[in-house]
Every structure is written in C-alpha cells, then in structure tokens.
Amino acid sequence: MTTATGVKRQVFFDPQTHLVVKEAATVGGVEEEILYDEYRTVDGVKLPHKVELHRGDDKYDISVTRAAINGTVGERVFDFRSNHKSNCLI
User: Fold this and answer.
1) Of 80, 24, 29, which is closest to residue 53 (Cα–Cα)?
2) φ, ψ dihedrals at 79, nearest 5°
3) Rounded Cα–Cα distance for residues 7 and 28 (Å)
4) How many CA atoms, within 13 angstroms, populate the side-chain half-sphere of residue 21?
5) How far apart are CA 46 and CA 29, in angstroms?
6) Alpha-carbon radius of gyration of the chain
C-alpha cells in the first residue's frame, strides 16, 4: 500500500487469523520493519499487545499494558516537555 505521504509499505497478514503480523517500508531512506504479536480482544477489537519496531540498526520492544477503544485521553498525555521518561505510558 502507499500512504498519503507517498511511503510504500508492505503489509503481511496471518493466513489463518487474517491479522496484520508485519509491516515493512523504507522511511526517510531507512529500512523499517514492524512486527505485531500477542493479539488480545479489547471491546470486541483484536489489538496487538507486543510490537517490535526495527529501524535501521535500532530495535524497540513495545508492550501494551492497557488499551481502550474510543477512550478519553487527557491533555497531559501530549505534554512531552514535562515527561522525560524513556517509557511512555498512555
């Protein structure tokens, strides 16, 4: 698929579950791969609770500890100046 900004992404689906398991793209000249795992149902929607982001030589492990569908998000979540932690809890 091609995003609105012109980035071409390959999207891979699990043949049994039809859930997205991987995305791959070149973003800003850097190879990027996103792996999705540990899908759980939240309010009737399957969401990945483990995400691995590979960008160039960097790897980021993302664990979702809580998810809500159409939940209320407070303004302080977007105040990144006051939150200098390496973990982002939303």
Assistant:
1) 24
2) -90, 80
3) 9
4) 7
5) 32
6) 15
What tokens appear for 25 in the block? Answer: 């793209």
Helix-then-strand count for the chain, H and E: 0, 5
Rounded CA separation 23/25 (Å): 7
- Determine contact, residues 24/35, Cβ cutoff 8 Å: no
pLDDT at 90 over 50: no
Pairing between β-strand 20-27 and β-strand 30-42 as defined by DSSP bridges: antiparallel
Q: 20 with 45: CB under 8 angstroms?
A: no
Tokens of 14: 């699990």
Q: Each residue of 25-84: pLDDT tens digit?
A: 998 899 999 999 999 999 999 999 999 999 999 999 999 999 999 988 888 877 777 554
**CB under 8 A, 24+ apart: contacts of 8-17:** 17/46
